Protein 1
Amino acid sequence: MYQIVPVAPGEQQMSGGTGGSPLKKKLAHEGRPLVMAGFLGCVLVLAAVVAWCYYSVSLRKAQLMKTELLDLNKDGFIIRNQAGAVIFTMTFRSGTLDLDSCSKEGNILSCTQSASGKLNFFIQTVRPKDTVMCYRVRWEELQNKHNVEHAMTYNGSHWYGGAETATQYWPIRIQGEEEPRPFITSDIYSDRNAFGGILERYWLSSNATAIKINDSVPFHLGWSVKDRSLRFQARYQDSPFRPPQGQEALPELSYRVCVGSDVTSIHKYMVRQYFAKPIKVPSTEVFKKPVWSTWALHKTAVTQEKLLRYASDITKHGFTCSHLELDDRYTADYGEFDFDPQKFPNASGMFDQLREDGFQVTLWTHPFINYDSINFGVAVEKGLFVREPSGELPALVRWWNGIGGILDFTNPETREWYYSHLRMLKTRYDVTSFKFDAGETSYLPRQFSTFVPLSDPSTFTRRYTEMAIPFSERAELRVGYQSQNISCFFRIIDRDSVWGYELGLKSIIPTVLTVSILGYQFVLPDMIGGNAYPNRTAGGLDGKNGLPDRELYIRWLELSAFMPAMQFSIPPWAYDDEVVQIAQKFTELHETLVAPRVLELAGELLDTGDPIIRPLWWIANDDEAAYKIDSQFLIGDDLMVAPVLEPGKQERDIYLPAGRWRSYKGEHFDKGPMYLTDYPVDLDEVAYFTWVHL
């Protein structure tokens, strides 16, 4: 027996001799196509197996990169809502993930490599309640020391929050291209492109998404109008942020994104989770009756005689007063804590007279001691100042009233020294409280050292706000960072006597809504009519009396009557009897209509954190029009206010969300949502509407 074995071309035959038989040659010739077909078949099967394996791996990888409505890829991640629509997009700008280094364990996606080296990256899914889904995100560089940057795209939604700004819009409007810069408290009156004195690392979207940047991040904020995005960056290089002592300067960007069923409910969740709440309501008198300040009227030329005359005029014209605020400058030098005997020859007698006439008085204070003050040497000797980086010498700073040192409120000795002087003023003259001015980190030197090292410069602002706690019943601050539990009034930065969005009348509602969303509810909206600075006043100051525009003053007064508190400086009687009558009408309306509702809401927010002054979308979160309205607001859920904010107008368009509303004129509207076009509002009126409960 023999076996015929097909032989591949080129193989040597095993038979003896060099040639083959004709039969073998024929068989070999006929077997070649079969061999080729078999070979190709094996290749195709192998290719199919490889493709299937690759597909399976890709499918598993795709599934691996998904978690609870979030899809991760090497360049970023997206979050969808239950309907499948993309509602949040974050792009990794500083690097890409190596997806081969990623794994999924339970509710955590993690990766160990980026294109530039080792890192610690994870996204953890947390469902704190049925209607809320949160994602904890962390990108920590383990080799790269430059920066970590993620860009949040607007996705066609409206965003709110962040910071008080000089030109304030509601919702946020990004303009131009801005490289990320330190997100720290600054004086936006002097630097109008900076972030303001009240800020938090929190933003909220009409898509019912919210983001909170972690406190540990060396946080810088930029934006791009071209990409429609906010740029979140972590870095230590060329930055005032410092790594915690003993840690390497490796940047880390971490934050939490939460998604809810609607914008109001997700904001309520975020506030309860991340913001401290006030522990008490400040003095009810400040909510009911106006504060009267000497600043816009007298500036630094205030004297004992002028203060007593001001108080007398308030009484003579029939106005009430929660307290008189004696502003800059009652001391001989900045950094002293007693009265200038030239300007106030009998301060004790002055206070006795004011007290007898029914006035309580607060005093202006600040964190600076000028070099020509007698207290400068004392502070140097005791080590009370913020110091140069070496820690040997006090750091000199320039502020709007000169050059001096700035007190270091991280130092317990400084805090006690400062507090003891304020307590002395309170005891000696029966001073009611204090207006704490400044406190922004922009007044710290570029390079500095403090008693307790500051990783985040804005912690200085937090320490300064704590000085108001013993006086919080009637205290006033103009800065806030993680300071929501300081139970005093927060004043928005000085307004110019102009109509527009840059520190003018139109900026007040967007600013109050913004700081309210950031958790600061006891808002003082600065002085009626603005500060009357000569070069920053609409149409210039009146040559005869140096006053802001009369119509502007009246419209400002009317808006202020619906804010949590009112503050006068330039008095109504500086104009004419009609202005006095309008002012009396609206201070009375504030006390009888607004203050009771505000105080009721103030009591509730100690538990809820809900704002007193609310945007229209608070009660209409499925209404696209409500997300864009910046000239109307709610007090609670049932009182809507629509002031006139344009010169020469005695009418305005008003948007009524769905519901039944009754106007201040007694009209009923129940077919909303609707626009009331050219709704008449006389010069002595504010349009307001109350919700009619069925």
Note: The first helix runs from residue 22 to 64.
Protein 2
Amino acid sequence: ITMDLLLFSVIVGFVVYWFMSRKKPEPIPEFKKTPTTRETSFIEKMKKTGKNIIVFYGSQTGTAEEFANRLSKDAQRYGMKGMVADPEEYSMGELSRLSEITNSLAIFCMATYGEGDPTDNAQDFYDWLQENDDEDLSGLNYTVFGLGNKTYEHYNAMGKYVDKRLEQLGATRIFDLGMGDDDGNLEEDFVSWREQFWPAVCQHFGVEASGDESSIRQYELKEHTDINMNKVYTGEIGRLKSFEVQKPPFDSKNPFLALVTVNRKLNKAGDRHLMHLELDITGSKIRYESGDHVAVFPTNDSALVNKLGQILGVDLDVVISLNNLDEESNKKHPFPCPTTYRTALTHYLDITHPPRTNVLYELAQYASDPKDQENMRKMASSSPEGKALYQSWVLDASRNILAILEDMPSLRPPVDHLCELLPRLQARYYSIASSSKVHPNSIHICAVVVEYETKTGRTNKGVATNWLKNKLVTDNGHKSTVPMYIRKSQFRLPFKSTNPVIMVGPGTGIAPFMGFIQERGWLKQQGKEVGETVLYFGCRHKNEDYIYQEELEGSEKNGVLTKLNVAFSRDQDHKVYVQHLLTKNKEHVWKLIHTDNAHIYICGDARNMAKDVQTAFYEIAEQVGVMTRTQAVDYVKKLMTKGRYSQDVWS
């Protein structure tokens, strides 16, 4: 017994020692943009600044934030005062106090991310809504605009939830839930909703809809003539000089500069460029799991930036700041300042997407030809002909801001106003193609270079993939780096290694499964019992774009992959896709799912592939599981709720 007691005390002592001695992560000096302590009460802020409308946004790629800014600007046009707020920065428990402000209104622009999830910055707000059943929001006036994509299973889930939940908690809906579909025309959905929303607000508050249509500047330009260049941003995302002196932890506001150690072309032939990159994260303390996403911050093509400078007749190396005219705003600048126009257009601004209608509207005043002015304003209106013109001339023709300036010679806006209006360049997410069990210090990316010809005969190039393609391991003796961070996902291997897995990933959709296969192989090496591991991969031609062929066939040889099924869509007269192979093997597939508790994973294109594969699973349940279509749909839904049917898809 004494021996046991002794052992027990040693263990307890060790555990206590371990907890006490764990190194606390070093606090990172916070460089807040404002010297004062951040005000977490939006009510106090609104009172102090005389605002009556607050626009919250849940945004992952910047669009919801953009829409929120536009609505806040609108408020000014209708003689009200609006402010934009990130729910992450304020205590949302104060919503019940909004009634202390007369004629107050909260607008929520909420995007849905992943499988019906909230965006990262709205996660806490979402949790708060779910947990607080006794919250009384009876004095709150609100409206919601949701941003979603119909190709996904949970279309606009977050917008719908916030709209419904606020009503349940007693708040008053001033105007119907708006829903934007990014698979259709998100911009048009928003403009149409907004067109009806403001008259309804004015009517509700008994305000005259004055609707001042002039352009309102949000920022003023300051040119710096004699500034110390050490104070100038050169592309950093958060802290000044953060790319020179790197300090963990690394995240979306403080990315890590990873060295590129491998960059190779994967396909043997064909006109596309599929590539495999490896990023070195040694010493970064970054941890990842198979199934996570790596986010990278790309830069725009310098040729495009130079052309913009030329066409606008600007010296791109002037050092400038754009300072918010509303001194109380949390957002002091539209992007890190002071910086140069060249840095802003290269690192901070999106110059390749077709501009949204508000940008055209605000720039119209700078067109010297009245016809151009009229067309630009028309495209920003909600008239049917205006919408059709925007659809055909801007969207269908894939005209970015440079193409618009080239095709409209009378339009020459001041570069600072253009920089104020363009959206921020966003990080791009890739499914990690490696396992941290096998590659703890390396993150693998598998991607296809985007390049296509537009209807106007121009060549458009994907920003991130072309930037990655040019990240050579050594470039003129320099080592290439990529600013990155990790975004956790729900796409996870089963907790029990004995569960079989069915992986469906054609094209670059194979990425996370390379990580899964590595991990199942590692588990086997550890002497763990591993269930069946089945892959369905697809590409166009066996001798062209069968990527990772050697690795996959090797994994099948050594028994890590129990079954490798590959669909070559164009190697015969009729197209063969992954869903055809699934239905061909329906008995085996059904046994794995229904009897052996298999987990199903689908990665790749959401618009066609993920839908067709889901239908194939319905058909298997009908044919082998002897179900009606309704029962089959219900069966797959249940697999989803149990976390046995996971998707990592994009459109």
Note: The longest helix spans residues 2-21.
Protein 3
Amino acid sequence: MASHSDTLVVFFGATAGANGGKLGSDEREIILLVWQIVDLHEKKVGKLQRRLVKPDSLELTDQSKEETGLSVEELYKAEPLDKVLQQFQQSVSAELKALGRSSYTLCVDGPLIIRQALHPEASKKNLVLPECFYSFVDVRKEFHKCCPNAGQVQDLTLHSMLEYVCIPELPLSEQVMGLKEVRCMVQLSLHILAEPYNHKFSCFEAVKYKLESGACSKTEPVDSETVIRARGLPWQSSDQDISRFFKGLNIAKGGVALCLNAQGRRNGEALVRFINQEHRDLALERHKHHMGSRYIEVYKATGEEFLKIAGGTSNEVAQFLSKENQVIIRMRGLPFTASPQDVLTFLGADSPVTDASDGLLFVKYPDGRPTGDAFVLFSCEEYALNALKKHKQILGKRYIELFRSTAAEVQQVLNRYMSTPLISTLPSTSMVPMPVLATPPYLATGSTRDCVRLRGLPYTAAIEDILEFMGEHTIDIKPHGVHMVLNQQGRPSGDAFIQMRSADRAFMVAQKCHKKMMKDRYVEVFQCSTEEMSFVLMGGTLNRSGLSPPPCKLPCLAPPAYAAFPSPAMLSEAALYQPPLLATPRTPQPPHSPHPTPTLAYYPPQHHPAQLYMNMNMNYTAYYPSPPVSPSTMSYFASPPGSVALAAQQPHPQGHVASPMMPQHGALVRMQGLPYNAGVKDILSFFQGYQYSPEDYSSMVQMSQGQTRSLIQPKEWLCL
């Protein structure tokens, strides 16, 4: 209502569940409404009105029965909410006419009855509330403005305010719930209107009629105390559905950002930005309220998270979204050759696009290639509904999907496609001669159990999801200590390893996060050591019975001869299970000490027939081990501890220091799963047809824990 209202309608309500400071937090329906008119000019009051409201569910909590004194039988005879609201309008209009007044404003004790009870319930029941319920004054804020020394607004109560201005409490005979609160508010209002206060009610609060669309810039400051994350949304829900869920609370312009998964589809989450912290705090009270048959989880979020989803820098997007109060529809699956005129023809005359082709935004890759997505603006809901009726109709030879969209989704989709590299990022193919490098800290092996293994991750989980899953324990993760495990196709395998600062921290994480939920799956968390992490990344298994070495599942390949491999005499058993390459190799750092730690050999190309060839098109897989000469090692492989470094430092017989490159003929292969009774002749017979000399091989057969392995060095490289 207008701020010049000359009449107050003091208003109170109660629900079938929690009341007072928790009013509306349990989704219970309104069962009681009480009101009384106050003439601000004549300082007169009207008749006290009390109405019972029949809820759809005739159930009362014990607390509600005790506080209201109502029974199910009384409510059964009452009128439903829409009928009672009609009676409210008729009663107030009649009294205003008798007083000769034309306008009024609601006066309440706190915003809960309006924002958390009346508007959400009316939205669920598809009731159209009278205009008066979209503006009100809060007697607490008015009193605080009049008497600032009385205390903070959130700490004020009717009792404390009456006591501050020395108004005696009502007699016990008049302390019926609803009647008592309204009479106290009327007394308080009349008191501050009179001398010496002469207060004028001016702190009018508004409830937004609808959600305002708009664009958000990445440079725009967003207060973290105004943002929440809603989780568990139906995938087809739109920003309007989210706005209805938070009905009664004021969402900032363009403040709904639907989150997308890696495939560009909605993942059931949204970030919502409110106009201030008070509304954000009220939104948190709607945790596990229902949208249809689904309950929605509501959590705090940060301004950075909101800008990451909703913020944008594209001038084209800003211009497209500059048209306010437009309905946005997303089209997906368009032919790559589709033109603006094709889209306008497809939508037809019953759903005209705002500004014709200027109301279309085609999503493209950085090189200008179309992605098959587009966003369309419509000036009204009717046109948008007509367009949605064409969902899965054919354009050209393809069916087109149409969905409701938001300004934040436009930004998010454009940001994602525009940041997509034109080609996949591959390690540099340039090989500059370098000394032997020390293994980075994350590859160092040890028996200290300062790592944890996460098993059963959702395949869509990213590092950000893992950090959110870890919660408060993220501060104990070592720098660059989160390692995603990929399968042979380079896709997430559902496993990850995390290096913690100490074994105690790793134990704490394993205890507190084991079988904790991530999205819709529970994740198992185990404590392990760096050595165990390396074994598993190489394809071995880690279980309660201990470590099992990795299986050799590589395809049979016969590439050209390779050079620069350690001689069998220098090769230790540790070389069989080398520290793996992680999903994202990082640039090794120079060593700081000459200690014999595990080293990472880097082999430069030689102008020699037996040079090292690297097939950069093969993806490294953490579950499929790579032997020292595998083409998939992407320029890196781990050498035996200290062996290459020592070889590089020892003087050559001719007087100069040996190079890290140690050219020799042939290569090393590993055989696993040999029969227990296999001998040297059996192994040589197995390699019949390959070029080798008896003096050029060495064989070692080990019998350990039911496994047999053999190291041999033929003249041609073979991987089994």
Note: The CA atoms of residues 178 and 602 lie 81 Å apart.
Protein 4
Amino acid sequence: MFVDSDTVNEFKSEDGAIHVIERRCKLDIDAPRLLKKIAGVDYVYFVQKNSLNSRERTLHIEAHNETFSNRVIINEHCCYTVHPENEDWTCFEQSASLDIKSFFGFESTVEKIAMKQYTSNIKKGKEIIEYYLRQLEEEGITFVPRWTPPSIAPSSEASSSCKKQAASLAVVVPDAAQAEGLGSEALSSPSGPPEPTAGTPDDKLDADYIKRYLGDLTPLQESCLIRLRQWLQETHKGKIPKDEHILRFLRARDFNIDKAREILCQSLTWRKQHQVDYILETWRPPQVLQDYYAGGWHHHDKDGRPLYVLRLGQMDTKGLVRALGEEALLRYVLSINEEGLRRCEENTEVFGRPISSWTCLVDLEGLNMRHLWRPGVKALLRIIEVVEANYPETLGRLLILRAPRVFPVLWTLVSPFIDDNTRRKFLIYAGNDYQGPGGLLDYIDKEIIPDFLSGECMCEVPEGGLVPKSLYRTAEELENEDLRLWTETIYQSASVFKGAPHEILIQIVDASSVITWDFDVCKGDIVFNIYHSKRSPQPPKKDSLGAHSITSPGGNNVQLIDRVWQLGRDYSMVESPLICREGESVQGSHVTRWPGFYILQWRFHSMPACAATNLPRVDDVLASLQVSSHKCKVMYYTEVIGSEDFRGSMTSLESSHSGFSQLSAATTSSSQSQSSSMISRT
């Protein structure tokens, strides 16, 4: 991916017929981390020389590598000329050479990567040329006059300039850069910014789209967005976030792709587990929230951002927690954030410019020591933690009004949990300071200032007030409600340790029932097995060390197969073991042959040593780097249905691949066992 370039040498003839420019190009290669680590580089540099001869109507492009030139020699030559029989046709020739002297013992691997990538990237040359031709047509340029000497046409210099621009548009930085062992496309335009659609399906990221929906982006920022979105499209088969949302995670990590990818993937897993995408359609807040939660949406600020008003000082936080519990409050705040994302999209269409965040106005009049009730503060801190992790860069500005003397105490408790970038967006006003210069009128139009702030606009936000104690619930009721909301997702989490698999038991009464499963491997590599037993295993023992059953909000670990059981005597394997890599999503089904007890097992995968050679394979080394400890995590859902109700035929479960890990690149094909089961990775 093109990052930057510097002009090393440039020459123009007096008559403007010849223009030679030499650039040093900086490329960011999307390569396996192991190779980058071994090579000790993050970027590679190529020198590219473009020679345009308008008189002869030729364009020559020469390139060679600067990085690792003592180990690898790459040369490429591209030539554009006029067809000898039809001067309206353009001929294109390309040649390249690769000489690998030494490359840290990976010579053969690098050569294979280079040849494979180079061959595939040649095919993209036509697409790039066609893109720039369409761009010229959109700019109204359908004909570029030929160069003529200045003595014949005084204005030929401008024509020559246009021709040079048109001829230079098809320049390609040599794809043989793959020989560095840092495999990825390395396409660039020599005229400054990178070609924006090199990795962008549907050519979506054009200048108008960026200006209209994303805002000002530097070429590097645009490149990061394209790369991260392309990675998601290639590896994540679930719902792909919109560009605006991906951009929020990039901005939250200062456009560090690795860090942004990590938190984005964690957020996508969280959204799937708790079905956040459907919260606005499927969840209705309890009546007590509608009556006593003093917050709501109220028009927009001067920048077009949706405006959310929260009268925290009038809200009985203790009463809400006692009446609802922590989980219900969290779910309500999540629904507010989802509504905020929807309103940002609406305002983007209304105002014709990108609106990606909202403004929050918090009125603290009435805030007192009651609001510092410990369980209430604990609930607030957890809400902040969840929102910070999953809705980064959605708060454009926070206006805190009428802050009382007790506010510094609350701020001391809360501020450490708020990101530094978010804290910079806070504006705090004590007393009536918000009415003076630099106050509320700088950010909100006078016509929509709420009436309770001496404005003229009636605000429909509930006034809050004390929650009646008759609505309070017992600690046991709240615990059960929190547990219900926590486990309301159809997915469950489990931890898998080395020597301690996680197992679940499914009892089958009728033969030919269908066991279905859907699970994500969130961390580490695991082996998935299915066993059958005629007798039920004993309930898991709970000892002091929790070796047989460990339960926590983050996942549990249960072992059912007794250590004295023998495979083939006490239980049998009904499916071939399936190795699942970190980041993969696996779906499948098994048609049972016999009634009895079926055990689904997720076991820690230990990588076998390579028997053919003492040297480890590259894929094994790369995979081993991903397992930092003897612990794996899975998120799973299972269901048993009757065969007559099973509508999805076995052949409809196509084998595909998904991953949150960049290194989970190998596709494993599905296999249908004798018991008519099918496993699909999507």
Note: The chain has a mean pLDDT of 76.
